[in-house]
């Protein structure tokens, strides 16, 4: 199915993001205050009280209360006060080091830009999760998005247009990109990438002669028409140029373009004609149509804890800015091996590390 994008995500923080931030803030404060309490205990100074307050009924603030004098009412020596006061800062440094060790090593939207990535390595070593070499898996879709029904959590996305989200060819070329990097770069690109070939479809030339007006190709009329997507093709005449390509408003679903019955092509010579004389043109979606094809293979059975399984390949046609897909669909390249592990646990840990730091 193809959709017309009405609006992108506004950028407002979700409830999950707010709760994760508050949780990380609480952990960091508890660790900081624990430094003061442990330093005081090492100096045999009793703890008067501890607890937390809520500012504006939302922001937590943890504290420990310590005496300013020793048991015999003698003021604490300056070195002792300094050790207790600096213990919280020391704990902060230790926490930052731990986060750097655990956090992902690549630049991620939901992680740190530098780190050893031990969470990924330890989890893989323990058999908790694995890293995908082909495709990304949907973890969440923005509420209200038309994609929510078609990309449930657990769906594996393998293609964006004709670009495969796989690492074998990249590794052979010495690249260190991940499938998440491919996902982000493909959706942030404003033009076709040069490292893959965008193929067309062999369509009957008569489709274009029967649709001479092609209102859907007129950007001033595109919001007023429901005639389909703007396709263009070069009929292969010697004088034809890109500007002289014929255009037509066609429905990709009605033409069944995602089936094996419609051949893919590089140019008109790739199509030819049939035995009954039907001539075919190599047609592509016009670049101004802002269309991205999302190739998926099902939900992988992760919603109900079943073993991963591939389903029939299908394609979702999205009409709108590519960035809309990036903003509305959250994906991961780390999937759990066990059904009891939440699908988005690893990405949540990465966000937690970034909030703590």
UniProtKB/TrEMBL annotation:
Domain Peptidase M50: 21-103
Keyword Hydrolase: no
GO molecular function, one term: metalloendopeptidase activity
Transmembrane intervals: 12-32, 44-64, 84-103
Domain of life: Eukaryota
Principal location class: membrane
Keyword annotations from UniProtKB, A to Z: Membrane, Transmembrane, Transmembrane helix
Subcellular compartments: Endomembrane system
Biological process per Gene Ontology, one example term: membrane protein intracellular domain proteolysis
Pfam families per the UniProt record, alphabetical: Peptidase_M50 (PF02163)
One GO CC annotation: cytoplasm
Membrane topology: Multi-pass membrane protein
PANTHER family: MEMBRANE-BOUND TRANSCRIPTION FACTOR SITE-2 PROTEASE, PROTEASE M50 MEMBRANE-BOUND TRANSCRIPTION FACTOR SITE 2 PROTEASE
Protein name: Endopeptidase S2P
Protein's organism: Rhodotorula taiwanensis
